[in-house]
Fold these 2 entries.
Entry 1:
Amino acid sequence: MSAGTMTLLAASSGDLNTSDQLSMASAFQKVFIANGTKLKIADFINTKLTITALTTAPTRGSTVTQLTSGATMIVDYVPSTKDAIYGYVTSSAAFTTTAGHTLSGGGMDPTTRVPSAVTNNPHWYNHTVYIGDAATYGTMPTNAYLVCVYRGRVTLAGNPIYPNQWYMSRVANPFDYLYGAGDPMSAVAGNNADAGQCPDIVRALISFHDDYLIFGCASTLWILRGDPVSGGSLDNLSDTTGMFGANSWCFDDARSLYFWGTGGIYKINSDFSGIQNLTELTLPEIVNDEGADPSTHRITMGYDKKRHGLIVSITVVATGVNSNYFYSFKTQGFFPETYPEECGPYSIFYYDANDPDYADLLIGSRDGYIRKFLNTAKDDDIGATDEAISSYVTYPITSLGPRDRKGNLNLDFEGKLTELVLELAGGAASGGFQDTDQVTYSLYKGDDAETVLEDIIDGATVFTSGTLSATGRKNKIRPRMRGAFMGLKLSDSTASKTWAVNKVMFDIQKAGRIR
């Protein structure tokens, strides 16, 4: 398949409930999906041989050979119906459905079979234990919403009837969940491991390679270090901070973890030196203001390598209504964003393609499209049409009153804004960003800073406004605005228009005592 081309895994279409919680993890060249009662596998390595149902299936890891053709495969999986063999073909010869080309090996039925179909990957099938044999391979939970891979084990959690339990497969065998088999590689669950199950409801599984596994719980955080069958320990990270949901977290390239927790957006350094609330001072009411409910909202987070920051998205699952934040690593600031409802993020994933032209942060949207941010685009894509981007910035509320030699503000006097000069960005011969098309400036005044800010938020009548276009330094604006405080808002909501500002310069003169 050529770079940049996507294809549909047809068997998966309609087989998942994307309005319900869904999580995925990749390992062994497969993708494991947990979607409630729908536990699925997308298999990108094996060849499938469809056969008449066997009485005795070949053992996992054994070699099956097709007589005459000489084709061989290492057996990976056989479903409980025993009417198919999934395995990795190890020969240059290909399996065939030709009569007389029978299968043998692996301890299967002495009466050998001829495949009725030979199907190349990818495949889509239920995630179950090998041949459905509970006595030999144990049992999996019938319901799970969380999945990850830790130390070669496919790990499941989020069982609604047992919400503090976790389940791990045998090492390197995602089809074996026989707990307590008595060897260091055997499958394990929280209730029969020395590490123990979580004392809280598990909402997220966060594994970092083979180093550790974090259990993000409703009101606490726990970390599993080492292997739970071989000396691993489950330790408490926080007794007071919980995690919102399965995908409300991400790592940056310094191995720091960010997540939406019970008190805002948090950061945990790679050395676990402490938990830092990034919104405690800048957005102290973010949790109450957003009012996100795990039963109706989905919070997703992603690290954007290209733009050096995080995307935090809060989306109403039923409608796509969304509220988002970009956290800039450069400025250490949060920038609120809202996308069209069609673009409401359900999932965020950075696709680290070999070809840098295709590497980018991908947004799985409510309408089924996968989107990415494009620096050169001037409108938002909503499918068949585009939607104008409404953007604005409010400069810090500024006192117009005079200051003494020490820089102290004299609150008894007003000032007069006599000149305002804006320098609009752009004009370079090259670059990834478009030149400024136009921007509207709006000036507000008031007796105190809070009134000015409220007028801007409420859209009150402006003192004066105007529209500037093209790049470079613009002509002087002479508003002659008298007051105690001023506010400046720059904005535009015109289709196919973009803007940026390099500088804002102004001159203030003393105007007399406040009346």
Entry 2:
Amino acid sequence: MVLKKLKLKNFRGYRDFEVSFDDAINVIIGRNDIGKSTLLEALEIFFNSEKVKMDISDLCVFSEDATLIEISCCFDVGDGTVLIDSTCTTNCRDEYLLNEEGLLEIKKTWNYTNGSITKTGQKDYLVANYPVNYDPPLVTEKIQTLRRKYDELSTNSDCPQVNRSIASELRRAIYTVELNQSSEYRLTDIEMTKEDAKNIRDSLHKQFPSYYIFESDRKNTDKDNEIQDPLKAVTKTVLSEMANEIERMQQQVKERVEEIGRRTIAKLAELNEDIAEDIRPVVTVKPLDSAFNFELQSDNGIPLNKRGSGVRRLILLSYFRAEAERSIVTDPNTRLIYAIEEPETSQHPDFQRMIFDTLNNISQMPTHQIIVTSHTPEIAKLVTPEQLILLRRDENQRVGAVTDIQEKIRGVSKELGILPYASTKTVIFVEGSNDVNFLINLNQNIPELKSIIDLKEEEIPVIPLRGGTLVEWINRDYFTGTNLRQIYIVDNDVQTYKDRINQINSKNDGIRYGWVTRRSEMENYIPREMIETEFNVSLEQYEEGWYERDVPQLLKDLCMLNVDDPGKREMAIKQRMNGSITKKLCKADLERIDAWEEIEIWFKKIRSIVDGTYVQSVSVQ
């Protein structure tokens, strides 16, 4: 279940607001007091309502007559299947429980009539593109009603046979008989407090991503929240992994305590039936996370909350890294959302870059989603324009998220002071961001290549032609029409790329240079044995023609199967191959697969182009 959208109505500075989230990392940019932190706190209220709680002061000040606050989250639920209880499932798509965009939309509302919220003032709704035939929606009907309706339809030869004790099967059978292509639908708020809808609501809540918010403000208490929050999150995460065991244990305790209570009442009845008649055993199960306290103590006895704020933030970063690595091993399906307010706070510039690189790496894990607010250009430079959320306030004081990519790029670069960058006379273009990682990792981690030319030392930009980070978008536009030497390195798997390189080289203009890799893709330059180790798979049976195969395409059916979407799975595999594996490559590895000579020639060509001594070839092999 992946968070895709947040919608707000009448919440603080937002009258009517909607923002989309990237599956990996999201960076919220905007002026002070525009409402960046409000978005993180709205999500906290939706998911947990522990650190931040809703009250009447949260009503939007720009809507004088408003009494209703709405917070909605939209999720990608893959194939739509959700677990109702330990044995029964339902399919949101088949039961028409998704909105017009095919997303699962859950809306929570708070009604502050007469200045205070009533007992029934907080409600949950499922917002669905639902058939107009059913009012009320079938999901809110009692099972007895569903059985009667099913029995009326069962004389129809097209009516499927179902288990009459399972409400979801009854509903699907009714839909199958009564709905067709001409059926009408409308966006409907289905209140999730009645009959089976309540079961689905409770089940969905259990399947929500775990959401953790970390604020930048220092709390001057003995137990500094800035440290305690992630440490409490450790306890919360461990308990969530043991949820089924704990639930069984709690049920056993509850049953045994109730039984003791009933025996006690029975004995009381022997003494006084009138008193015993009004007494019944009630067992309340409280959250277990409050029963545990997790602390980190230093050997010299200095409490962490007395350490510098920068140190405390680094501990927070270390928690992220440890938790991210652990979660892959223990439960690859656990979905986590980390929301961090200004992670650069109190950090030296060197640590800022380290923090942002780490957050970016964590976000590339298919089960982790990062949302941060920031004022620094460094983090904006690391992400793509699609992963940036730029907030602006219009002349009517409405805050909105800029959706146009070019307008967003200009706005963020102006807001943060990001300027086009070209300190050298040469720029390298590759196909995508994974190819950027491949080329830079080889250059920086193999001394023999680094000695030919150090791309970072000479500040030569490597820019992807598809996608790319914000700064790469800015530079790409800036380099057009200049006298910068442009090097194009493209894969060998697409004929149009070869044709384009031939066109560039045939002009022989002294500005543009290009060549095509001899192997199909960059991934074909990674030894098979290293891939087997990284993904814990056996690939020996695919050895023939290995270095011309579409390796990520092959691997997506063999590993990382916890990522439901095949496209996202393939992308995650490419990221790991061009990221962590290429950092381990050495000259001997490339020599073993007969790839060293070609790659060495690449960097020698780059060196001679930078020096202005390269003699250009006109054709592509």
